[in-house]
Amino acid sequence: MTNYHSYHQFLPALEYAWHTLPKKKWYVMLDDDTYVIKSTLSLLLGHLNFGKPHYIGNPVGDYKGRFPHGGSSVILSGATMRNLFEWHPKIVAKAHLESPFAIWGDKLLATTLMKVGIYLDETYRRLFNGEHPWMTRMWVDRLCLPIMGFHGLGDRDIMEQVGEVFKDQKGPVTWSSLASIYGVPDYQSFIGVPIRQHINYVGRLDERSTTVENVAKVEDCLNLCEGEPTCLAWTYDPFIKRCDYAPWAILGDLADGRFSGVNGKLGRKLLSRCHTPS
Hints:
Helix content is 31%, strand content 21%. By secondary structure, the chain is an alpha+beta fold. The model has no long low-confidence stretch (mean pLDDT 92).
């Protein structure tokens, strides 16, 4: 497992790992503010053949170039490392020349691997997470799946706290289990009390969230969310009459004056489809 925090050190760090720890089954790269849940990592790797060229991570970018988000961790099989550093030294040498000028080292790694015929496998993208536990967006399409870890734990105390929480977890930790692990209200509780004050269950907005202006009252925002088949959380700002809702929910962020809630009925329905991991 290689730890890095400087973008231009991606390839040198990987090459160093290969030469100092050769013939390992798997190599995992992660930032120094990333925490990986070992049970989830072991579950994933146990289903894959390290003798084949695997390159796995959390995809970012558009159709012009997809590459794994380094902060979410990047997994490479031993076969991938051998292919790159033993069989294609000229391609690696050229990449080293580009490395000091690369804006994103994780993207340079992706384009370099493409030159040897290895592409990012997005099959397992829903296991990866690039956010802090309290800001982790639990999407409707991954509640039943294991979560790989967390990112953005730059403060030492926070990293230690997360380590204490997850070090003794038995079996895979699913996205949906984060609520019970951190002791926050579950989906059932929102069915009886759908509106909570001074909190935000949506968190960071992006192109997949929806914003509606000029919403008269908080109940209207609640109804907008419940009327959407994939809305899992909503938040309402009464001062500017704005409603935001999204196909995910976070554990909850303090937000003075706002109202927010989680679609308890949808959450309960989604969890009913989960099976207990063995």
